[in-house]
Amino acid sequence: MHQSIINSTIKPFSATAFHNGDFHPVTEQDLLGKWSVVFFYPADFTFVCPTELGDMADHYEKLQSMGVEVYSVSTDTHFTHKAWHASSDTIGKIQYPMIGDPTGTITRNFGVMIEEDGLALRGTFVINPEGEIKVAEVHDLGIGRSAAELVRKIQAAQYVATHDGEVCPAAWQPGEATLAPSIDLVGKI
């Protein structure tokens, strides 16, 4: 039986990220105190991956305005991230940290390692400031993700975190009505 990762606390890790033209150490402690997205993808210099990372780059300013930091992670090294950043216009626009996980520690911590290939599944995890995983989405390798939908999910997670007793219905958008679960709503929705 597999235990859900939702509401679990992120596990310790230590890695190196390529960010803002340099290499920086990153640990689980860097994710605390703010909302974070850990965005796993299979490998640099591939096909679907640059479309996803580019889409995330296009939404990065919005995420930053929401108090969210993004960390992309693959089992490539931070050196490979630097080379990809320098050689691709799409990847070159990335402003968020690109973490190298060649040992697979972080990838295994989040349960997205494809052991026989040494690659990560497409996993997206939203982590609250306390280090708890609030959203977990995992895709097979051929299915790309949408950063716009991720923004909506984070908005809902942030709303629920600050509005005790309220929940966000399907396709909820900021400013729309939420629900306050009660016996009176049973069978009425």
TrEMBL record:
Keywords: Antioxidant, Cytoplasm, Disulfide bond, Oxidoreductase, Peroxidase, Redox-active center
Gene3D superfamilies named in the record: Glutaredoxin
Reactions mediated catalytically: a hydroperoxide + NADH + H(+) = an alcohol + NAD(+) + H2O
EC number: 1.11.1.26
The keyword Cytoplasm is annotated on this UniProt entry: yes
Places the protein is found: Cytoplasm
Thioredoxin domain: residues covered: 4-159
InterPro entries: AhpC, AhpC/TSA, Peroxiredoxin, Peroxiredoxin_AhpC-typ, Peroxiredoxin_C, Thioredoxin-like_sf, Thioredoxin_domain
Alphabetical list of Pfam families matching this protein: 1-cysPrx_C, AhpC-TSA
Keyword check for Cytoplasm: yes
Subunit structure, as described in the record: Homodimer; disulfide-linked, upon oxidation. 5 homodimers assemble to form a ring-like decamer.
UniProt record similarity statement: Belongs to the peroxiredoxin family. AhpC/Prx1 subfamily.
Function: Thiol-specific peroxidase that catalyzes the reduction of hydrogen peroxide and organic hydroperoxides to water and alcohols, respectively. Plays a role in cell protection against oxidative stress by detoxifying peroxides.
Protein name (record): Alkyl hydroperoxide reductase C
Organism, as annotated: Shewanella sairae
Lineage: Bacteria, Pseudomonadati, Pseudomonadota, Gammaproteobacteria, Alteromonadales
